[in-house]
Amino acid sequence: MIEQELFSVLGLARRAGLLIIGVDEINKKLKKNKEGLLVLLASDASSSVKRSVTAKMAEGQSILINIPLTCGEVSRAIGTTSTQIVALSRRSGLGEKIQALLAEGGNVLE
Questions:
Q1: Helix or strand or coil: residue 94?
Q2: Paired sense of beta strands 37-41 and 63-66, if any
Q3: d(CA 6, CA 14)
Q4: Which residues make Cβ contacts (< 8 Å) with residue 108, sequence separation at least 6?
Q5: CB 85 within 8 A of CB 56
Q6: I need a surface site. Which of 53, 79, 80, 96 has the fewest CB within 10 A?
């Protein structure tokens, strides 16, 4: 099941210190990051969160993916509360693993 594997990979990325959590932190990294981020949006995230990040992504190599996990599921996977959006480097091994998992489900937004 894609959801369970994604749940596990997100938890591993958090423990490895590779995960960027929250819209403010992601927006800061989007300004600095030249290689591109893999931005993961929970299925029930607010439209304002999506709008905020999408505006910052226009000039970079980052991609936004709507994942098949709710905010509650993302929060449980990474040990936080009310997390709507997370990101990690597209070039990291875990970033590539998430992209491969989601390619099976076809949930890429941009």
A1: helix
A2: parallel
A3: 12
A4: 63, 65, 102
A5: no
A6: 79
Asked if residue 65 lies in contact with residue 75, where contact means CB atoms within 8 angstroms, the answer is: no
Tokens read off for 99: 């992209």
Write out the DSSP string of 70-89.
Answer: -HHHHHHHHT-SS--EEEEE
Structure tokens at 26: 């992601």
Residues 6+ away with beta carbon under 8 Å from 71: 42, 44, 45, 82, 83, 84
pLDDT, tens digit, 9 for 90 and up, residues 19-30: 999 999 999 998
Residue 97, classed as helix, strand or coil, is helix
pLDDT digits (tens, 9 = 90+) for 71-100: 999 999 999 999 999 999 988 999 999 988
pTM: 0.89
Looking up tokens 């600095």 gives 32
